[in-house]
Amino acid sequence: MSIIALYLLFAYFNTRIDSIDGLNYSLRFASLVKDKGYVAILENPIKPYLGEMLLGLTWRFFGFRAMHLMLGLWAVLSALLAYKLFTKVFPTNTELRRRGLLLFVLSSPVLALALHEFKTDLLLVTLVLGSFLLLFELFVNAKTFHLPLIALLCGLSILVKTSSTPAALLITLVAFLQVAKAEKLRSALPRILSGVILFFSPIFIWGTFFGITVPSFEEEIRVPSVLSKNPRHLYLTRDPKILAACIEERDTKDYGSFIFGARSPLVLIQPYFYLTRTNAHSFSEQGLQNLGPFLYVGLVLLMAAPLIFGWRKLQPIHKALYIVSLGTLACFYYFVSAIYWYIIFLFPLSSAIVVYLISTLKNHRLKEVLVNLLYAGLALNVFLALKTTLLVSHPMAEITQTALEGTMASGVYLHNKKLERLAQNGLILNASEHKDLIPVTFMTDNDAKVLKSNYYFASASKPPDEMYQELRDLGIKYITVDKYSLYSQWYQGCPKENNKILLAFLEKYTIPVFFHSDTGSPNIFELKD
Q1: Looking at the record's lineage, which domain of life comes first (predicted)?
Q2: Cα–Cα distance between 444 and 278 in angstroms, integer?
Q3: Rounded mean pLDDT of the chain?
């Protein structure tokens, strides 16, 4: 308990301002919720981010540091629920419980999320592990009344991260099937119907009141927010096929920067590439990017569980967890295969199968070597995570220009305040794209004043003068993008073509009005009259 108390005290005072994803997404949306209670993006409504809503409301009513304490509480809950899960998996083996918990809690992604990343993934872990524990009660102890709560937790998990959708659907499905099997259909039907209602109700309510989109389908699925005080929604003209090609080429390039062999069968032998550092970040920068060889192997072993243990020898609850794991991993490897923290809720199951199989080895020397390597890897993870945290930690009571000095967000703050002043004259098009996104987190009311380009210049399929006229007709007066970044060799294919067209557009139709404080690169442009 003393360790938990010390960690929560640290979480309360630790400010996670140097988090790239945090600046671009989570902190931005939490800040908007803090300021006005909702988020209503000009073009596409906010994706289903329940975590940012909770953080923003905590910030609004209890303060900036209380919001960071919330991140710490999610980390503690994740660890406690993981331990509870290990007690279910290993009811009589304390050593395997401890070893499995350490492999999960001290993995590099979990440490990054617990110490220095401003992300909501550990809330997702809390919800999914909670549903796993309820599944155990449902399958092992025949507590069918847990079904509605399982469905509710799964529905809420989708609102935290849409990447959890395959797992949420499968968990709910196996729970439905188990209740139908345990009870007669007539008596099971009310529970199943209540489960269906509780699964879809959070998503329906969120979509109705806050707006909703589905990642990669923003052009087809977009429900505006009815809470927005500004009912205006602006839509740039894009060719859906060209836009889809741009996004696909961006994702392929991006995923390949995280892990060698992304979107190919090579992801199944990632432990080798991890150890040899093939096309990978250095160990000192691994953070969220790398699981370490044991968790990588564990995920592959999860998919092969029936071959290892025999399908008939698996207990019903183990079969259910296998179905959830296999379906989730199949979707992950097919669509993503690189950003492993998307499936962080499977890490405890990966840990469990790894530590169990190591314990069954008959070669005691090999077993000892593997256990020592496991602990050595975890010690390295802890060292690197603490080093990174010390480098990026900047305790502050609230976000101000003075407090941000010395952080990577300092220049962003100055840029955003300039945008805020300019926005009094007209709307702003944020033409920056991954990997050089320009955050607008510190700009007041940015959701109603900034329109995202989303490869507009490549996908508009129209001459530059028509693009210029469309932007003017929509009330856009400024474009923000780091000009020097448009020359980066990282961009290939459609994203590169987008940059090429954008550069020509900037030269002909705009004048620079603001420059990067360090590089001198123009990053705000005003459209000519």
Answers
A1: Bacteria
A2: 43
A3: 89
